[in-house]
Model the fold of this input.
Amino acid sequence: MSTIWTQARRAARMNPSIIREILKVTEKPGVLSMAGGLPSADTFPVDAIKAACDRVLTATPREALQYASSEGYAPLREWVAGRVASLGMKVKPEQVLITSGSQQGLDLVGKILCDAGAPVAVETPTYLGALQAFTPFEPLFASLASDEEGPRPEAIATLPHDAPGTRFAYLLPNYQNPTGRVMGAPRRVEVVEALRKANVPFVEDNPYGDLWFDEPPPAALSSLWPEGSLYLGSFSKVLTPGFRLGYVIAPPELYPKLLQAKQAADLHTPGFNQRVVHEVVKDGFLDSHVPTIRSLYKANRDAMAEALQAHLPRGCEWQLPQGGMFFWVRLPAGLDAMALLPRAVDAGIAYVPGAAFYAHQPDPRTLRLSFVTLTPDLIREGVEKLGRLLHEALEPVAEHAP
Amino acid sequence: MSTIWTQARRAARMNPSIIREILKVTEKPGVLSMAGGLPSADTFPVDAIKAACDRVLTATPREALQYASSEGYAPLREWVAGRVASLGMKVKPEQVLITSGSQQGLDLVGKILCDAGAPVAVETPTYLGALQAFTPFEPLFASLASDEEGPRPEAIATLPHDAPGTRFAYLLPNYQNPTGRVMGAPRRVEVVEALRKANVPFVEDNPYGDLWFDEPPPAALSSLWPEGSLYLGSFSKVLTPGFRLGYVIAPPELYPKLLQAKQAADLHTPGFNQRVVHEVVKDGFLDSHVPTIRSLYKANRDAMAEALQAHLPRGCEWQLPQGGMFFWVRLPAGLDAMALLPRAVDAGIAYVPGAAFYAHQPDPRTLRLSFVTLTPDLIREGVEKLGRLLHEALEPVAEHAP
Done:
């Protein structure tokens, strides 16, 4: 107990990111890490960014280096509004708020919508970073029963909708982190219909939607109920995470409050970064660039799928992800992914135990494997080691004697 | 009332930035604006930044464009720890958290230290952006009686220190925004002594400390009570605000919680921006660059001082700022700076009414004038127009007839 400082009540609820703590442990030299959620640095368009930096600092240095508007750089907001039209969304540039990564979008959403004790519905499991962003605002998480397509519509019907009613449902329909699952078109209609009936609006988080392998995902949930949705997008997975650029698309009634929260949080997102990214994307660069990411990631996905099939013991379960960055594996009964992690690191591999991604009752048998950080050869080597570890963990030690 | 969305209780307390709203009104073509708090774009070291962008993207593109640590770029944290030694502070790099501008530092401080109804002491007047950053966390502001050096020590002795005790005092000892005042060395000792006695820690915000004109300000308040202080610094006024780079220096007991708040808020500050700024500053660039800003601003300050003397009616009061960016003017009794603003804009000038900077009982006679945005010639023209407006406001209209 400090004798000088008194911390806020909410601070007691905040915890270090389990993933970041795990990443520190697993960042030993020689460890094949399938733990991180980092996009492949091979996909960063360094030359295009370098040229754009130069153009911005030559053409508009004073504007790019000065304070800028809290809403974001107008041409980039226009670009975003145009971009999401391909997802079925009809959006005006005035509805776009540029944020410092989509993680900031989650923080701002929590700030303007969460009250202590008011329910927020989340998928089972869900993105850990969202749990962390909302937690300081002390919501009561309600875990929606979910299957291989995401939350089940009947689970939504049972949400608390009396005061304090459920403030929103937080949904990741495309190649969800951590499960990699995608919500099919019929399920999207059912889910949004159930939310409408329950009068529960939703926050749609879509960092991975562009990373599809065979066919694009169905239209955005937000296209089905525009006035009942907030939509979060990001440049981190299609361009670079190092610029920290994301955006929130808000219905007109929420936009002003979100903007006030943004002003209070950091005045504005770096104008320089916004101009550079706009300079890179404005003439269709992503149309040629994103397919190169897709094909790289798809080859990696295939390598991991094959390796999992070849090396994981009977009783392990996983879905083939149709996009994104992750496999989600469920181990046979009796195994605990968290308990096994130290042995995995000793064996030279790392993953993220799935328990971190649950708001309630974690499934200790789950783990998340990224297929975008290692090369196919290293993926095969890593999964082979994982398989060996799991076989050992399942069999009596004596059987391994020669 | 929305039938879909329910906003958080704290959202009702949040308001649009009055300054940003005023800036919108005053951004008419032809208006000489002394309203903004923007540093002069003439001071941005465009060539140095351009060269640094190029070096970073040539030498370490993959690292600069990838996700990075929440604490910040290690070499920049080391540089900051070394830099503040000149302010009398003994700081380890592990105490430095890089933030997305020092505004984000205020948000994070509010998040981990403010509870609904718990007092936070502020100067009279104080920085509006801090009031905005803390307000969502629902503190009870306590306005400290202040004079031309800042808060009075005897005002601190009367702060509430029983539960819920005053969480911290928010202090700007150097060329404060909005008043331009600086706290002398003896006052610093008295203030910190009073805070220690009252067991009230403090948050020291120092965006303007480098912008002194004749002699540097006394040692930082934080040097006098390191374990009872959080210190906020910024690159916005000495390099560029467009990169949104600031930092918080925290005692070891608070650092982990601040870091968790940072992770939840935006994962990390753009690694690219941190590396570019480090590349610019690492070899002593500021030692030659900051003096050029000082001499530019000092010449502007002198021009405004002379013009105020020449044109403002008897009964106006102001101090000569020894650094920073602002004059703080108190109008003669009977005048209201907010009420006069529309006439000022019609007359082709703009300022910020001082009322926005008070947590309680605003003084309607005050206004803030920036001397760093206009050239000396335009400052003279602007102040002359202000003087004419004030003379007119003070005298019966009839006297102006030819």
Q: What stands out?
A: Confidence is low (pLDDT under 50) at residues 397-402 of chain A.
